[in-house]
Amino acid sequence: MRLLDILPPELIIAELRGEDKTSVLHELAEAFARYDPRLDAAEIVRVLQEREQGGTTAIGDGIAIPHGRLPGLDRIVAAFGRHPRGVDFQSIDGRPTHLFFVLLLPEESVGIHLKALARVSRLLKDASVRQKLISGRDPAELYRIIREADETL
Predict the structure, then answer these.
(1) Each residue of 66-77: b (16+ CB within 10 Å) or e?
(2) Angle at alpha carbon of residue 24, lines to 22 and 27, rounded to 5°
(3) How many CB atoms lie within 10 A of CB 137?
(4) Which parts of the chain fold into alpha helices (H)?
(5) What's the pLDDT at 85?
(6) Taking Cα atoms as reference points, which of 151, 142, 49 lies closest to residue 98?
(7) How high is the pLDDT of residue 3?
(8) How many C-beta atoms surround the C-beta of residue 118 within 10 A?
């Protein structure tokens, strides 16, 4: 699985504006709903918040990988968002979160979602990739950075 198979360019957000965890999740959910009108932003927020209640998806180093199973979804779809200032996403290292890679998963997905999470983790584990994503100018450049890094995984 390549990340670009699940991450459309339209779901790259270069400047998230939310000031806290909830508003960032709302902003990302609204992007999914604009991309595919069959997706309901409120349902996406509910699913993502439910997952966050089980433990934060902010894994440190400025990274969060919110994810959740969405009823009626027939494939994995991802979004990437960057918050230039960073927000408190209750990260395990206590530092602000800047990079958000969101995965929406079909209810019945079992192993494929673990592969997607592992691929995102490997991509963002690379400090040089993280730095490029932090300093990228616009959605097109961020997509190019992800594409190039994804090809080398």
Answers:
(1) bbbbbeebeebb
(2) 110
(3) 8
(4) 21-35, 41-53, 111-125, 127-135, 139-152
(5) 95
(6) 142
(7) 94
(8) 12
Relative to beta strand 63-64, strand 58-60 is: antiparallel
Contacts 24+ apart (CB under 8 A), 34-42: 34/10, 35/8, 35/10, 35/11, 35/77, 35/79, 36/77, 38/72, 39/70, 39/73, 39/104
Residue 83 known to be catalytic = no
Q: Output the CA–CA distances (angstroms, integers) from residue 42 to 23, 28, 46, 106, in the order listed.
A: 12, 11, 6, 17
Instruction: Round to whole Å and give the CA distance between 83 and 62.
Output: 10
Over residues 112-140, the pLDDT tens digits come to 888 999 999 999 999 999 999 999 999 99
Given phi > 0 = left and psi -120 to 50 = alpha, else beta, which region is 4? alpha
What's the half-sphere exposure (Cβ side, CA atoms, 13 Å) at 53?
A: 6
| Range with the poorest average pLDDT among 88-97, 108-117, 140-149 | 108-117
Catalytic residue among 67, 83, 98, 113: 67
